[in-house]
Write a structure and sequence with these properties.
By secondary structure, this protein is α/β, with parallel strands linked by helices. The chain has one domain: TIM Barrel. It has helices spanning 3-7, 24-33, 48-55, 71-80, 92-101, 112-120, 136-144, 163-167, 188-199; strands at residues 12-16, 38-42, 62-66, 85-86, 105-106, 108-109, 125-128, 151-154, 175-177. The strands form three sheets. It has a four-stranded parallel beta sheet. Strands 6-7-8 form a three-stranded parallel beta sheet. A two-stranded parallel ribbon has the order 4-5. Helix 2 (24-33) packs parallel to helix 9 and helix 4 (71-80) runs parallel beside helix 5. The longest helix has 12 residues, at 188-199. The chain is globular, with a radius of gyration of 16 Å. It starts with a helix and ends with a helix. 45% of the residues are buried.
């Protein structure tokens, strides 16, 4: 898949922090049942790589690795079965490894310099992060105008309530959000309910 195909599978990419790999498959099944197929598992816990392996077994799920920081994370994510990569920022070493991997890559950017550096590397799709503390929708709208070739997935402080403000920006293809899967022991029915509501956010 291309990065744009991943970003347009659904209006929301759930950002998942999984502490127990045993919870991974039920979470993925509930999200896919609710219509959300692109799932970002952040590499913030010891269970993350195992969670990617388990979620990758779920039919319809397109599982990616988030919080990818360096070439070692790229390699580990690929070994776990990740189908796309997401990072909080953009460095030369990370970009080189991610691009060489051939996987769709969504690097984090926070300003015009970040985006321009990515464009120089041949990248056109970016995470705008952290979205709300970087000025919110008005800031991204201002950045997207001169950097018109770029497309974005705002992440960081996105909620069901403010997501429509982001979708009003033409350059926004999807948003990343953690609200779909609340913290604690996963409740499959609640997750599926939230996923269905998130699907309704499509502009």
């Amino acid at each position: 898949m291309t990065v744009e195909e991943v970003m347009t599978l659904a209006p929301v990419i759930p950002v998942l922090v999984v502490h127990d790999a045993a919870d991974a498959r039920p979470i993925a099944e509930a999200l896919v049942a609710g219509g959300l197929r692109a799932l970002e598992v952040t590499l913030r816990t010891e269970a993350a790589l195992g969670a990617i392996r388990e979620m990758a077994k779920v039919e319809g799920a397109v599982v990616g690795a988030g919080t990818v920081l360096n070439p070692a994370d790229v390699e580990a994510s690929i070994d776990a079965g990740a189908r796309f990569l997401v990072s909080p920022g953009l460095t030369d070493r990370l970009a080189s490894a991610a691009i060489d991997s051939g996987l769709p890559f969504l690097p984090g950017t926070a300003n015009a310099g970040d985006i321009m550096r990515g464009l120089d590397m041949g990248l056109t799709h970016f995470k705008f992060f952290p979205a709300m503390t970087n000025g919110g929708p008005s800031a991204l709208k201002a950045l997207a105008a001169p950097l018109y070739k770029a497309r974005f997935c705002p992440t960081g402080g996105i909620t069901e309530a403010n997501a429509p403000d982001w979708f009003a920006i033409d350059a926004v293809l999807c948003v990343g959000g953690s609200w779909v899967v609340p913290a604690g022991k996963p409740d499959a029915k609640e997750i599926e309910k939230r996923a269905r509501a998130a699907m309704g956010l499509r502009r």
